[in-house]
Amino acid sequence: MRPSREAEYTDYIQGRLPWLRRVAYLLCQDWQHADDLVQTAITRLYTHWGRARNAASIDAYTRTILIRTFLAERRSAWTRRVSLFAAYPELPVAPAADPDTRLDVRAALASLPPRQRATLVLRFYCDLPVDGTAAELGCTPGTVKSQTAKALTALRRALDPVPAEEA
Amino acid sequence: MDTRDEHTVRTLLRAIASTPEPPAAVDLTAARRRGSRRLWIRRAALPALALVALAVALTVPRSLVFNHSERTLTTPRPPASSPVADAPWQFDPLVPYASFGWLPPDFSESAANAIYLNQGVTSATDFVSREAAAPAAGHLLYLQVNARGTCPVFAAGAQADIRARGTDQVTCTDDSFAVTGTAPDINGRPAFWTDHGSGVVWEYAPGAWAELSAAITPAAGGPHSRRYAAEAGWVTHPRPGVPAASVSGGAALEAGIRDGKVLLPSAATEELLLKVAARVVYGGSTPLAFPFRLTGGLPAGWRLRQAGFAVSGGRMLGTSITAGPAADTSAFSIGASTAAAQGGCDFVTGQSSYVTRLGLQWIYRVLSEPDKNWQRLCATGPVDGLTGVSIAMDMNVPGFSTPLPGAATLGGTQGVLTRLRLLGPNPNSWTTSPLG
Which of A152, B206, B391, B417 has its CA 20 to 30 A from that of B362? Predict the structure, then answer.
């Protein structure tokens, strides 16, 4: 990579590292693993920097790499380990996001299939529209909608002790 | 699902994300080094490969060699493209200089544009890139045709040296690769294998080079991309006679070495690369059609440097332009397309604000630091049937506090928006002159 582009790349990563780590953490709920994900993603970004710097949004390009790194890793055999949160307790959600609630939500999030989790993070943390989420996940908007609905239903069941009554 | 659920999830996700974070264990230096490490590992494997190639040549029964030759000779090759006598030193970004002249039946450029990060391909003053994919197989072909004189490492005097020992990194404009061996001539001109045969680089005209590489689609990618590539049939598992290598682990996997064995492109992959490369068509005459036009032109001294485009239904649809003065060649860009999905609208607290223009909310993002001063304006929804409408501008020379000459005359991104004419979603109404 040319020195000037190397500097651009370094500058970009240094500025966006906290954001990347937070998105990665939401995807995997483990800071150590999040750092591993970010490490892999920014390494891939380095090899694609020429393309990334010309993208409409470097952030979007980087986020796509991160999300796809996460999903690809989850597809590989060695990461298909037993989920620690497969049988998380059904606890009520508190109106405010206190530390206990965070733990519950983390557990509930971790229980979701990776693709549903990524969908929620993109839509409700990164604030992407359905179309944008579909682009990053490489699926159709319809799939995003159905994944979102399933994920929200699962979260509701996990966090609400009273069965949902809405239609 | 109701909005209450969505609101709750949004709030909770933000709460989780605000969890106090431990010190980062991310190593930026290591990330930068790993790209080089990949090449280093390959270079380390080269002597062993050369020895094995020699041993195979000396020990493999002649019948096998003849069989291979006969198979190669009898494989039908499409006719080669016309030789190019004189490639230009610079291309016109609005008229892509090169295109695929032949692709295997299951490959298409439309499919590649649909899957590859939605960034489209590029037509620049110094290179043209094209992509074609076979999504079902997870195969992707990346072609980059460089303008004359942009790959100085391939100067005639250096070719013998490259033939003798390969070279670790060749950079042609935006493209970097390792040269790992001599390939059969393409249309009578020299060619080399890159990345152990997963790519080929060839001289398509005197002093002008192109590269074609076999990759996999992002859906099949990730840290174990080589394994997926193997499953997709791009590479063998490994080729007979290739010895165990001395490296292992994730870095080796990324370098194409798994279980101590080097994964090489299959003979069929190399054959396909040569076929596609030989049929590339140069000297395009079809201009890109853009869904927008900037009235008033560019400031003095600014030039159009590159255009992004997508291929859909055989048409080349422009999706972005990038322009700037010599001090910052990518200072200014405009993007818009009809793609069903366009991301890229990021709201960054402390930098972004919402503004309403053309009856729509836009995210207006400004970074104002002494040596870095730029603006982004990005539509949060479709505008006149177009998605991903965005404008980006450097106001300073990057790395300096000096104002970028000409930037002020455009009035920043919001000034540019007032001069931008959006032409709707129908390509029949688009223009081949996006700069007025």
Answer: A152
3-class SS letters over B86-108: CCCCCCCCCCCCEECCCCCCCCE
* A98–chain B nearest CA distance, Å: 8
Q: What percent of chain A has pLDDT over 90?
A: 5
Best of B6, B26, B144, B259 to disrupt the A interface (most A CBs within 10 Å) is: B26
The one-letter amino acid at B46? L
CA B4 – CA B11 distance, rounded (Å) = 10
Residue B216 has what pLDDT?
Answer: 63
What value does the CA radius of gyration of chain B take, rounded to a whole number of Å? 24
Q: In this structure, what are the phi and psi dihedrals at residue B340, rounded to the nearest 5 degrees?
A: -60, -30
**For residue A77, is it within any domain?**
yes
User: How close B297 comes to chain A (CA, Å)?
Assistant: 21
CA-nearest of A64, A166, A5 to B218 is A64
Would an 8 Å CB–CB cutoff place A156 in contact with chain B?
A: yes
Question: Is residue A14 domain-resident?
Answer: yes
Domain count, chain A: 2
Q: Could you tell me if A70 and A130 lie in one domain?
A: no
pTM greater than the 0.80 cutoff: no
Residues B271 and B167 in one domain: yes
How many C-beta atoms surround the C-beta of residue B368 within 10 A?
11
User: Which domain does B106 fall in, by range?
Assistant: 31-282
Residue of A29, A43, A109, A153 for testing the chain B interface, max B β-carbons within 10 Å? A43
- Tell me how crowded residue A41 is: count the other CB atoms within 10 A of its CB: 26
CATH number at residue A11: 1.10.1740
Q: How far apart are CA A102 and CA B179, in angstroms?
A: 51
| A65 and A98 share one domain | no
The complex scores an ipTM of: 0.76
Shared domain for B305 and B401, answered yes or no, is yes
Q: Please give the span between the terminal C-alpha atoms of chain A, in angstroms, as a whole number.
A: 56
Q: Is residue B144 less than 8 Å (CB to CB) from chain A?
A: no
Give the pLDDT score at A150. 82
Which CATH number belongs to the domain containing residue A101 in this structure?
1.10.10.10
Q: Are residues B116 and B225 in the same domain?
A: yes
Touching check for B181 and chain A: CB below 8 Å? no
Average pLDDT, 10 consecutive residues per value, chain B (436 residues): 67 81 81 55 36 39 30 41 83 96 89 57 89 80 89 70 63 67 90 78 92 68 46 48 35 39 66 94 94 93 92 88 88 83 65 88 84 84 89 82 86 92 93 93
Distances (CA, A) of B88 to B85, B145, B149, B209, B287: 10, 11, 9, 11, 17
- Quote the minimal CA–CA distance from B72 to chain A in Å: 34
Residues A129, A101 share a domain = yes
Report pLDDT for A159: 66
Domain of A108, in residue numbers: 86-161
